[in-house]
Predict the structure.
Amino acid sequence: MQSESGQVKRWYDSVRWRKARAMFLRYDPLCCMCAKRGMTVVATIVDHKIPHKGDYDLFWNQDNWQSLCASCHSGVKRMQENHGYSQACGVDGVPLDAGHPWNQGER
Ligand SMILES: [Zn+2]
């Protein structure tokens, strides 16, 4: 019996993910959260807008992907861990409040 996290790790390790991720970043090379703040920052991470939590369809659904830089990504993860949800770059353009943790301490 494979644990959920072990299974997800396999997805991240897969050639399919590496190729899809590289393709995604090529088409969408800038951090979408920084872009909303008027900053141009190269994205290095493909993040899931809605945490997939081991859900196969959510994991591979590119509509649920977004390009993030490392600093925004760690902000998103911190938010998810602290609050159980992500406010990053919502489909409806969730406002990125200057008071958000990831806006503080940058620059
Ligand atoms: Zn960013």
